[in-house]
Amino acid sequence: xxxxxxxxKEAGLARHTEGGQAIGVDLGATTVKAGIVSREGxxxxxxxxxxxxxxxxxxVIRQISFTIHxxxxxSKGTDIVGIGIGSPGVVAxxxxxxxxxxxxSAWTEVSLGDEIRKEFRMSVDVENDANVAAxxxxxxxxxxxxxxxxxVIWGTGVGGGIILNGKIYRGPYGGAGEIGHVTIDYNGxxxxxxxxxxxxxxxxxxxxxxxxxxxxxxxxxxxxxxxSKKPVSKIVELVGGNLDLIEPRVISLAxxxxxxxxxxxxEEAGTLLGIGIASVLNVLDLRLVIVGGGISAADEFVFxxxxxxxxxRVLKSSKGKIRVAxxxxxxxxxxLGAASLVxxxxxxxxxxxxx
Length: 355
Ligand SMILES: [Zn+2]
Description:
5-stranded mixed sheet; 13 strands; disordered C terminus; binds zinc ion
């Protein structure tokens, strides 16, 4: 099999080794967010648009291209050295092939990198979105001075990225870092991945909401029977009695208002997440965990619960040496990490990064 030439060289564009700015694209199931990013990690301009994930890959690619054009128009005169894209799904570096991103209709395998490169004739790197968020923290956030850490993103699901020796560890097939599917109970509830008792099946947004509903129902039934009619939980008040509206944001709000059940649910979720993380740390011999995503942003006590749980379960050699730190970049991590893809491979040969 013959090796292809580096595509950015085919296009007559050399990679710059210093200066210049990059475009970072954060492809989500609902929104495409993108920005022009300086090497120092400042977002100089940004633009966002609906993804149209329900309309198929061609429509999504059109939205991404439109977004990039908007930014290029704004950047007249500045030196854009390349485009980085963070995408859901498993991403193969060669050609930037994105496989089966969840919640994208009719999307099996699409060479997203090639499609964008054809249009813009500059270097385009595509990487999995959790990996991109990990890279952002490594380049500009809580992992800035760290060479090795585990990044966990706790939101709709539970994802992760592994930074080893300053680089993302992708695994030989690009699928490494799926910590959400570490099993913490072989006999546990079914998970969307087809297995049972995965961390995600306890603490992912949908599952955590359902567990809270299940916990509330008997309390509500008991309250019905009781003459005192004491309110059961702030959670019920916040959703106006409609338990279908329960989501982690509501649970977190109730916890902040001192609701004991909400506090208990989040603390328990943190403890369960910590059990899974401890196993991953034991396997990889890592001592720093950076946790980001909507749910973890909730409260300090959730972090404490994660930390306690990890400390109680890691191997003796790591006991007392594990740190859990909050991610620092919030929802800008996608844009910043995607832009950092453009710079991180500089100086490497094409064949090394596209084996
Ligand atoms: Zn699973």
